[in-house]
Specification:
The protein is of the alpha/beta class and 138 residues long. The protein has seven helices and five strands; from the N terminus they run E-H-H-E-H-H-E-H-H-E-H-E. It has helices at 8-12, 21-29, 38-50, 55-71, 79-94, 101-112, 122-125, and strands at residues 4-6, 34-37, 74-75, 116-118, 132-134. Strands 3-2-1-4-5 form a five-stranded parallel beta sheet. Strand 4 (116-118), helix 7 and strand 5 (132-134) form a beta-alpha-beta unit. Helix 5 (79-94) crosses helix 6. It is globular and about 45 Å long. The relative contact order is 0.19.
Length: 138
């Protein structure tokens, strides 16, 4: 059963030159409980296509399409997520604390699916009402 939604930085941690051991231990312990949003998938694929050709790009391509895509649910930014995002975006704008659009979409997907968002940027998501956030790198 899915419990966690990985932010883009969390999705990217396993392919860093030196992945954080604590993070990797937590990720392995949560096997079968993690998903990503279509927004995160977009950011990862966009980043891949911006990279120059080479071994690093090949490794990331293999990770995304041979490891992540076949084993990790990719949750849509659907009507419910859009409604949550729209309401939170309006509320946060009134407070002068508007998030980036992509962060709002990810938060909307997490809230709409009652998932804990895993991110290294916990402070960027702390202002969203009803969003549980964990930093596995802390």
């Amino acid at each position: 059963m899915v419990k966690f939604l990985l932010d883009t930085n969390a999705l990217s941690e396993p392919v860093r030159a030196r992945p954080d051991r604590r993070f990797m231990r937590r990720l392995r312990a949560s096997a079968g409980e993690v998903a990503i949003s279509a927004v995160t998938w977009h950011e990862a694929v966009f980043g891949l296509h911006r990279m120059p050709e080479g071994k690093r790009k090949d490794a990331i391509r293999a990770y995304l399409f041979e490891t992540v895509a076949p084993t990790t649910p990719i949750l849509p930014y659907d009507t419910h997520a859009a409604e949550v995002h729209g309401a939170e975006r309006a509320r946060l704008e009134r407070l002068g604390r508007a998030p980036t659009f992509a962060d709002g979409q990810m938060a909307g997907v997490a809230i709409a699916n009652a998932l804990i968002l895993v991110t290294a940027n916990a402070k960027d998501f702390a202002r969203f009402d009803g969003l549980a956030v964990e930093n596995w790198l802390a």
